[in-house]
């Protein structure tokens, strides 16, 4: 059975302004998601599940899903802040979604095969989906607790228009992830790529692997996530800005020895629209890829 692509598309682009998931950046109005779906199909994925908010379902079906008919089966599931485990009630003053791993949990009833999780608004590139598709397709049937993450080289993930937030990864000699630390201020300075740690800037090598939220899991991950979410909620439910992130769950599993997570290297160069000023550069880069024959135009 081919793996499934799970696309996290429920978030609003606060820094970018508006629904960047639906912004047409390709020569024929293609969205970044369209390129991810195209690359996933040629990387060996057999189904796409989109996690969205219920309030833009109609637009999403009309503007996005209609393109994929005849190319790949799709499903839509919804993330809501009220969707909590039995015994928990969302605080009345909570407006922020519960985070990326809560979003992943929304897919538990429709995903029964190995799957890859990605963000909707990041352009990951062909090689990223090729290496993840290879990993998931080559898992022995019934595999459990053998996960993966595409580790982008940090220098391939920067914005020319400001600092970025990335999960900086440490790996062991087996290329297994040992920690992911979220660094919220990363940029290139005169002496190289640096992240801010308190008041200090720490330099890291250009090829340091960072997480761009491209994860490979098998279905038991949902049960781990549900169980851990309950204990997380007990500690964090009244903190209005707390979020249940994927790296939090992965760190818990690898530190407890329940799972391994292999870091897969990719030559892909990430780009996206973190800032509104990134938009034109992204349009230009996609146009170049089309001109170079990496993608057809129109895509679907």
The largest β sheet comes out as:
11 strands, mixed
Number of strands: 13
Give the N-terminus to C-terminus distance in angstroms.
24 Å
Q: How is the CATH topology named?
A: Spore Coat Polysaccharide Biosynthesis Protein SpsA, Chain A
Secondary-structure content class: alpha/beta
The CATH architecture name reads: Alpha-Beta Complex
The amount of beta strand, in percent, is 25-35%
Please trace the helix and strand order, writing H or E for each element. Answer: EHEHEHEEHEEEEEEHHEEH
Integer average pLDDT: 92
Percent in helix: 25-40%
Number of helical elements = 7
- Give the uncertain stretches in residue-range form: 12-17
Total domains, how many?
1
Q: Let me know the CATH homologous superfamily.
A: Spore Coat Polysaccharide Biosynthesis Protein SpsA, Chain A
Radius of gyration: 19 Å
- Give the CATH class: Alpha Beta
- The shape, in one word, is globular
What order do the helices and strands come in, and which of them pair?
Blueprint: E1 4-8, H1 32-42, E2 47-52, H2 57-68, E3 74-78, H3 100-105, E4 115-119, E5 122-123, H4 126-137, E6 146-153, E7 164-171, E8 177-189, E9 192-197, E10 200-203, E11 209-217, H5 220-236, H6 246-255, E12 260-265, E13 271-272, H7 279-291
Helix pairs in contact: 1-4
